[in-house]
Each structure stands twice: as C-alpha cells, then as structure tokens.
Amino acid sequence: DADVTQTPRNRITKTGKRIMLECSQTKGHDRMYWYRQDPGLGLRLIYYSFDVKDINKGEISDGYSVSRQAQAKFSLSLESAIPNQTALYFCATSDKIPGQGLGELFFGEGSRLTVL
Amino acid sequence: GENVEQHPSTLSVQEGDSAVIKCTYSDSASNYFPWYKQELGKGPQLIIDIRSNVGEKKDQRIAVTLNKTAKHFSLHITETQPEDSAVYFCAASMHTGGFKTIFGAGTRLFVKA
User: For A6-44, how does the pLDDT look when each residue is reduced to its tens digit (9 = 90+)?
Assistant: First the structure.
C-alpha cells in the first residue's frame, strides 16, 4: 500500500461545484502539503500544515481551503470550482529533521481534477 | 521571493550518453536543493539532494553540483538508460522566515534506445 494516498485519483466536475480532495498518510510525518502541477509551471504550493493545529498559506491559496483532521489526514477543498483550477494536485508529507530544516518530500500519486 | 528557473524544458539523448539539467535560483538564503523524478502517472520522487555547505554530491550514475556564488545547480546523469526517461524537477528550499520550497518548471528527458 502507498504511504501517501490520495482520493479521488480522477474527478470531473462542473463550474461552481464544491470539491474535496483527500489525503492520508502512514509515514507518521507531522508535515503535510498540497501542491498543484500545471504543464510548464512545475509544482506550486497551495497550503501546508506542520501539525494538526497549524495551517499556512502557500504561493497560490486563493480559491482553496484545507482541513487537517488528524496527523495522518489533510484535505483540500475547492468551495466553488472554476475551469482554471483544472490541474493535477499532489499531497506530500515530510519529516522534521532536527538541525537540518526542510527535507525530502514524499508525494502521493496525484488527483487529476477537471472543471468544466 | 524565491524564483527557480530550469533549463532545458525538453531534453532528448541517446542511450549511454550523458544528460545535464541546469537550474538557477534567486534567493541567497536558500540552503537545500533537491531533485525529483516524476514518472508517468506517479508523484515526484526524490533522487538526490544537496545542502548549501556542499559543492558536489554523487550517487551512482547521478550527481549534483552547486555553485552558491553564481546561484546555480545542475543534475548530471551519466550512461543514460531508457528507464531514466521521466520529468525531472529541481527545487530550492529555505527554512528561515517560514517554509519555502520553490520548484522549477521541469525538464522532460527522453532517452532513446
């Protein structure tokens, strides 16, 4: 089984609908992230959380919200989806390495969202 | 804020040849530089990383070099194989002033058998 699991893997929806993408992890990491991937733009950070009570905006948080329900679960919501939110979304986790700051990101397999 | 530029966007090499991907970053506070490989239908996976106190790191056929003065770092793959075909992302991270990991736009590498 994958260490970082995303559901759904594919979703087609219509403009204005509310969408939730879910992420769960078995790595025991405190840090979780949501990224968006668009062709030619790399990966851009939407939100991140360093523990259950910590939520931080990333580069492109407008139009998105998140919930950290437990150490292992981090969900991303689009309250009213629009076509330019069509993208591949990745959840990731990382461990805290004392004295070394940021470390390796462990990604899920992605959730492809299409907004018509 | 930090900006990471990655070149080329597409790279095609013959099996057995070397491949080089280059990245530049803008923020001198960045101190961690990972490289990720993304295979089709999968999430990115770390293949090698380097911290700012090191100039070069090697792991079998892959190596990364870092020039802090010029603010650029490169990925070198030697003796390329068809299974090296993938999208490669460089990134620059810092852990001061909040969390920031900025990714390059990616390089699609094709290794022709």
Answer: 999 999 999 999 999 999 999 999 899 999 999 888 999
- Tell me the chain A residues in contact with residue B95 when contact means C-beta distances shorter than 8 Å: 101-102
Q: What is the mean pLDDT of residues B58-82?
A: 96
Residue A102 and residue B99: Cβ atoms within 8 Å?
yes
Q: Which chain A residues are closer than 8 Å to B43 by Cβ?
A: 4, 90, 92, 107-110
Q: What is the 3-state secondary structure (H, E, C) of chain B?
A: CCCEEEECCEEEEECCCCEEEEEEECCCCCCEEEEEEECCCCCCEEEEEEECCCCEEEECCEEEEEECCCCEEEEEECCCCHHHCEEEEEEEEECCCCCEEEECCCEEEEEEC
Q: Which residue of A has its CA nearest to B99?
A: A102
DSSP A71: T
Q: Which of B31, B41, B106 sits opposite A42 (nearest CB)?
A: B106
Grouping H, G, I as helix, E, B as strand and the rest as coil, residue A108 is: coil
